[in-house]
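hiii so um. not sure if this is the right channel but i have a protein structure encoded as tokens and i wanna go backwards to a sequence. like what aa goes where. can anyone help
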């Protein structure tokens, strides 16, 4: 299981690097409602909902995971989104061609997928 996580993390880092060079011209508005599926640093999984407002690259997000609510602000550069949500490390997402956002948080020890 660790190997799979390491492989996913390496693939995500590669996607982040590629998307960072894609530039803002390829960026599409990501505003909307999303279903969240994630894995915490301890390996437990979670689901929830996420609302995103994209103001031309300035991002506001709110998560609802069970009884817990979280909020954050960030930036979008092309298909890469960084969101400060009050933790030590931001959530970093890459927008996929399908419109999904694939991200990592907790310094790469946790994963999240947002599905429109």
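sure thing!! here u go:
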């Amino acid at each position: 299981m660790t190997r799979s996580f390491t492989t996913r993390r390496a693939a995500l880092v590669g996607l982040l690097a590629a998307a960072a060079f894609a530039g803002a011209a390829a960026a599409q508005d990501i505003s909307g409602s999303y279903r969240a599926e994630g894995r915490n640093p301890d390996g437990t999984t979670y689901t929830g909902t996420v609302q995103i407002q994209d103001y031309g690259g300035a991002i506001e997000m709110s998560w609802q995971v069970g009884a817990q609510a979280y909020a954050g602000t960030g930036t979008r550069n092309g298909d890469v989104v960084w969101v400060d949500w009050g933790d030590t490390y931001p959530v970093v997402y890459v927008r996929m061609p399908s419109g999904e956002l694939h991200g990592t948080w907790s310094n790469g020890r946790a994963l999240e997928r947002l599905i429109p």
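oh and Residues 18-25 have pLDDT under 50 and may be disordered.
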